[in-house]
Amino acid sequence: xxxxxxxxxxxxxxxxxxxxxxxxxxxxxxxxxxxxxxxxxxxxxxxxxxxxxxxxxxxxxxxxxxxxxxxxxxxxxxxxxxxxxxxxxxxxxxxxxxxxxxxxxxxxxxxxxxxxxxxxxxxxxxxxxxxxxxxxxxxxxxxxxxxxxxxxxxxxxxxxxxxxxxxxxxxxxxxxxxxxxxxxxxxxxxxxxxxxxxxxxxxxxxxxxxxxxxxxxxxxxxxxxxxxxxxxxxxxxxxxxxxxxxxxxxxxxxxxxxxxxxxxxxxxxxxxxxxxxxxxxxxxxxxxxxxxxxxxxxxxxxxxxxxxxxxxxxxxxxxxxxxxxx
Length: 326
Prior knowledge:
The chain is mostly helical. It has helices spanning 3-9, 14-24, 70-80, 84-97, 102-120, 125-128, 131-136, 144-167, 172-192, 196-216, 224-235, 239-247, 254-267, 272-285, 289-302, 307-316.
């Protein structure tokens, strides 16, 4: 039984609590603004603790993850239309043309994970509004071949990213790749494989990488997705669980998490649509139907070929007003 389930089901003994904290690894917690502090939406360049030397101006301006890259944008558009094989072709081609850049492999990994999420019905109101599934994962098992392909792409991305960090600890492309890799692994472990303790470790890693990235590139707005989703998910756990996770360096705040997701939903480069669907589904959990309706309407207008966005918008769209016969 995982620590998450043990503390969810009953008051943990001191020994069990200490075991959970030791397994998570107590370390420096990523600084998270308290509720009521200035939000990322109010201050887009909110400061975070700097890690590593600040790069000279222009040193990382060529990072593909931090600029519009037409081939990658086309691939992500296919991804958000649920055209997964076509998206993978674009990402694989870009990766071949840009060896050593981890963003291609990260994007390939995302295509496998998003496809499995789509097949499992995870990015839906049915899943998000079901507390048991939302907090404990899918029923059944994920597709083994797809999960293996995802893990292989993540491993390649991490090797490339760490190689770049050895040369430049402030390499934004590498930090972005590691942020996404850890965040996606957290999702796969917690939601698909139901390995909640391992998933929490990856959440902590994603938070740390995101903070490092924002320290050197405050315009890396896609990184707020990792921080926001972690805050929202952990903030949705019971008070007992959050109390013990706090000692392990993991914090949670649903309202703050939604504001951070809003940063990516507003100004994200590649992950803006993903942030919008996450924020819309979180808004439905919180009873904020107007926000959910607006975001889902925007997604259906931008991606009219997406069956996922169309179905979710249909659930919140205002009823059609019948025409009065003349």
